[in-house]
Design a protein that fits this description.
The protein has 77 residues and is mainly alpha-helical. The protein contains three helices and no strands. The chain has one domain.
């Protein structure tokens, strides 16, 4: 007996409750996955910021060397 068939019978209330519970569960899972996505996004932004800061320091360090070719190669890292 499918969903549409049981809506006419006595089992419709139980089936509707099951569907409501399933919808609530799916909404909760969606909220959790959105929160996880936000946390991962923040983590990756922090990693990118740290990498950028490191590369800037490396560029300054390499810039103190005498050879101009070294400074050009710094950007290839």
């Amino acid at each position: 007996m499918g969903i549409l068939d049981s809506l006419r019978g006595g089992g419709s209330n139980k089936e509707l409750e099951d569907l409501r519970r399933e919808i609530t569960t799916l909404k909760n899972q969606l909220k959790l996955s959105d929160n996880e996505k936000t946390l991962h996004h923040q983590k990756y932004l922090a990693i990118i910021d740290k990498t950028h800061a490191f590369m800037e320091r490396l560029k300054l360090l390499v810039g103190t060397l005498e050879d101009s070719f070294v400074l050009e190669r710094c950007w290839d890292l």
